[in-house]
Design a protein that fits this description.
Length: about 400
């Protein structure tokens, strides 16, 4: 009961978050209905391809949420969260590869096709157990979390911060990208992991499976948001924001600054790993390109455009930019890079607080003007009343 009251109190003061969660839950319910219940010729019918695309956007929104948690509320500009996202995706991809069995190109019941192609004679030890879904889910959480713990422990205990920490996170994901490109690592090398067949016995090509993955991604995003909002609304979150604003003073007051930074950083990495695991079965591939530092930098842009330190702003920014990216690549394939670059420049110039900050400031100005107008009307009415009393 106490934990439930904490969650409700955290969401009670979060109007924007409640709006986003309401729209998200409505999409989780209505989108599958529009696909399954309406015929393909109906104007409100949503194609299965579109649902898979929306599921990919929601997994990106989870990644943006994870970045906003550490950047907006802890002050750590992470340029390497793409690594945690990719590690979670690889953990799920390994499970999906083991599910192929003898249906692969080479028909080997144990070894994935790329291992047969490279003349591997046996399955590497770190692939053992990935034919079990529960172990894959455990690794989705454990591997990114453990890497974040080791990296964060070494970095925070060494008092690395600011731009130096950002460079270190970028170097981490770049090093992982180079490692995963090597064939001898046992993760598919340049081509990565692909040609997935099914998950939990259900074909990934079936419409119902794709819809189920979309629903799971939407619910996971909602749960992740509630967890993050509860954290930042708690005493731990207030201390984290104090660390963001004045780390030295917070440390002087006796708080375990390194421990708090480490805890929030690990939580953020776990959320990013889960997002990667939900991303892979919906797009059908995971390769070392997901480790590219440019991907992590792009996530930071999503958060900045949506509104840093709002949580729901990160979700909005990720959805807006990725939808714009898909639209531009279809309508204007030759100039979409310039269009997105212009969008980023304009948002920096005219939306320094992000879209959410711009809308919030606009609402505040309208509210202030309305109150000023009401007070002016009331004062004018009082003057008229006083004048009529004097005349009488």
């Amino acid at each position: 009961m106490q934990s439930k009251s904490i969650i409700l109190s955290a969401l009670g003061r979060d109007r924007g978050g409640k709006v986003v969660l309401t729209l998200l839950l409505a999409a989780v319910i209505l989108v599958p209905m529009a696909n399954l219940l309406l015929p393909s010729g109906h104007p409100l019918h949503i194609e299965t391809f579109t649902i898979s695309l929306m599921g990919k956007y929601l997994s990106y929104a989870m990644l943006a949420l994870a970045v906003d948690l550490v950047w907006g509320y802890l002050g750590i500009l992470s340029l390497g969260h793409g690594a945690f996202f990719a590690l979670g995706g690889y953990a799920m991809g390994m499970y999906l590869m083991r599910q192929i069995g003898d249906r692969g190109v080479y028909g080997d019941p144990v070894l994935p096709d790329f291992m047969v192609f490279l003349n591997w004679s046996e399955l590497p030890w770190f692939w053992y157990g990935f034919d079990q879904f529960w172990l894959a889910c455990l690794m989705v959480v454990l591997v990114p979390g453990l890497l974040a713990y080791i990296f964060g422990y070494l970095a925070f205990r060494s008092r690395v911060s600011g731009v130096y920490l950002s460079i270190m996170t970028q170097a981490l994901t770049y090093a992982l990208m180079l490692a995963f490109f090597r064939n001898e690592m046992g993760f598919g090398g340049n081509n990565g992991l692909t040609d997935f067949k099914d998950i939990l016995g259900y074909s990934l090509q079936q419409d119902t499976t794709k819809i189920a993955l979309f629903v799971c991604t939407g619910l996971a995003l909602a749960v992740s948001y509630i967890v993050c909002r509860t954290v930042v609304s708690s005493r731990l979150g207030r201390v984290a924001m104090a660390i963001r604003d004045t780390e030295s003073r917070t440390r002087f007051m006796g708080y375990d600054v390194d421990g708090i930074k480490l805890w929030v950083f690990v939580l953020s990495a776990v959320i990013a790993g889960i997002a990667g695991a939900l991303y892979v079965p919906q797009v059908g591939i995971i390769n070392p390109g997901e480790f590219a530092p440019l991907n992590s930098i792009e996530v930071v842009v999503w958060v900045a455009l949506g509104g840093r330190a709002t949580l729901f702003g990160a979700i909005v920014g990720a959805l807006i930019i990725n939808y714009a990216k898909s639209w531009f690549t279809v309508e204007f394939p030759e100039v979409w890079l310039f269009a997105l670059g212009g969008l980023f420049v304009l948002s920096t110039m005219y939306f320094p607080k992000g879209v959410i900050g711009f809308v919030s400031d606009g609402i505040s100005r309208l509210s202030f003007r309305q109150k000023a107008g009401d007070s002016a009307k009331s004062s004018k009415t009082e003057q008229e009343c006083n004048g009529s009393e004097v005349t009488s």
